[in-house]
Amino acid sequence: MLQSYFPLKHLHLHHTSAPFQRQLRLPGDKSISHRAAILAAIAEGTSTISGFLESEDCLATIAVLQKLGITIKHPEHGVFVIHGRGGFFLEPSGSLDCKNSGTTIRLLAGLLAAQPFSTTLIGDDSLSNRPMRRVMEPLSAMGAILHATGIKANPPLTIQGGRLHPIDYRLPMSSAQVKSAIILAALFTPGTTTIMEPTACRDHTERMLTSFQGSCSYLLDQEERCILSVTGPQKLQACSFHVPGDLSSAAFWIVAAAARPGSKLMLENIGINPTRIGIISILERMGAKISIKTPSCSQIEPCGDITVSGASLKGTVICGKEISNVIDELPILAIAGALAQGVTIIRDAQELRVKETDRITALVHNLRLMGAHVKEYEDGLEIEGGVSLHGTRLPSYGDHRIAMAFSVAGLFACGETIIEGTQCISTSYPDFEEMLDFLTMSRS
Ligand code: S3P
Fold first, then answer.
1. Is residue 328 annotated as a catalytic residue, yes or no?
2. 239 C-alpha vs ligand 1 centroid, how far in Å?
3. Domain 30-242 coded CATH 3.65.10.10
4. pTM above 0.90, yes or no
5. Is 327 in the pocket of ligand 1 (CB under 6 A)?
6. Rounded to the nearest 5 degrees, what angle is found at the Cα of 254, between the Cα atoms of 429 and 306?
7. Among residues 98, 89, 103, 84, which one has the least CA distance to residue 44?
8. In this structure, which topology does domain 10-28+244-440 adopt according to CATH?
9. Quick check: 82 pLDDT over 70?
10. Residues of the chain with pLDDT > 70: what percent?
């Protein structure tokens, strides 16, 4: 059989001892961009989303919504004009390709569970290995019929949607994708659906509902656990929404600056939602010098300017409730740990094993290839910091955050570091390499 040939893209980095002083603007937040497109598609009327992240993941969401009958215009970079159909979608012909995007498949599963037709969601090799049972269970309990593949319930994911009924659901793991899938289904469901989270995770869907004139509410149970309630059906209304810069993408530059004494970095207009800023307090605990300037007016999605000055870092322990707040930043925090003096321990992070790749295996393997001393746990890793890293060839595992985290590690290593297969970076940060050049100006 003939196979198509895609040349692998590699990233070459040279050790740079030079501190840098730079001011950067970050692309729009990935999680918020997905949600803005989806809520605008559900709403009645025409919404304008600006600051939208034009990465492969978010464009996959746009393409799927178009296949569901939503007209979307793209007048300029970062701006999408979405003509919502008031909660009505068209039955698509053929399957819906979510590419590499877990957020696309899981959030849209919630939306499609409430539509009176059947759809099949597919993805690339990585997505085809990710667990879907976590969305299938609550959506089946609401009355949809879902099928996935094999014992691990992987995509293709087929959904026969229809009239749903409300549920009271306790999330077995902290997952904003699962929580959001249930919220989206609940918007179409008569009655009140409640969701109990084991620990608070990103709340962009909940906040954004207000912008589209929808609502949800929180209450505390007798044991002070937070329960989210969504009463449906709700009619959302179009709005204009601006997506702030992505802190998860900024995290790579924040660590690059924080760990290099003499560096100074200013990042403008970054999302600082409290459910996402765990990385700042963790780095401060490690000795980083970071300040945040916020505008005085309150915003649905808070944002601010972040200034980082380089310092020498020390190891820390990251575990428990802190994990869900920094789930996407753990790869770069592991690199910060390798650059710090002393030991850094990451535990309670078993969710890392079911991301775009098994990120615990990828981190342990690549850090060891660079000469770091690392212990692997089922739910995390332990890094003995302060051991000098050496450049080498490193696989990206097809995972954007592994590729970017090790690009930063390469800046601190002796000799050349080559990251193999960096095309995956465009799933979340298409301009990453350009920014890396801008920051360091020393790469061949
Ligand atoms: C996301 C939630 C997180 C995160 C992912 C984006 C979202 O996944 O890792 O990158 O936008 O809701 P989980 O819901 O699996 O924790």
1. yes
2. 24
3. yes
4. yes
5. yes
6. 100
7. 84
8. UDP-n-acetylglucosamine1-carboxyvinyl-transferase; Chain (3.65.10)
9. yes
10. 96
